[in-house]
Amino acid sequence: MANSISTNLILNKEEQETFHRMNRRERLRFNALSDNISKLSFIQALVEREKFELFSSFPITTFSLGL
Fold it and tell me: What digits encode the pLDDT tens for the residues 13-42?
């Protein structure tokens, strides 16, 4: 099932990719939001969560810290 982005909701490329990767639970929560500002904030929070998960998946070593 293709999920289309509302024409009133302007997303950058990273936010669009996150929008299309939302799972069922995230999609239900997103659709329950009443206005575009809260929907945009929700997507931005998902983007930040993905960045954090990606960053935290790399082990911190002295080599990666440049020490």
Answer: 999 999 999 999 999 999 999 999 999 999
